[in-house]
Amino acid sequence: MSWIIVRLSDGKGVYETWNASILEKVNTEKYKVLTALDYLCGLNEPDLFNHRAVK
Length: 55
Fold this sequence. Notes:
This protein is an alpha+beta fold. The chain has one domain. A three-stranded antiparallel β-sheet has the order 2-1-3. Strand 1 and strand 2 form a beta hairpin. The longest helix is centred in the C-terminal third of the chain and has 9 residues. The chain starts with a strand and ends in an 11-residue tail after the last helix. The model has no long low-confidence stretch (mean pLDDT 86).
């Protein structure tokens, strides 16, 4: 599975990873973790970024 780390301040994807151990190290005050599928769907519907965080 692939995850995208999204910056909360502007909704931009800043990092993609396949390594799940990285997810627990994400600063959730500044970033949100989405599956790649949710991130790609969110490009067409930006409101999805506010609802489908993995973490």
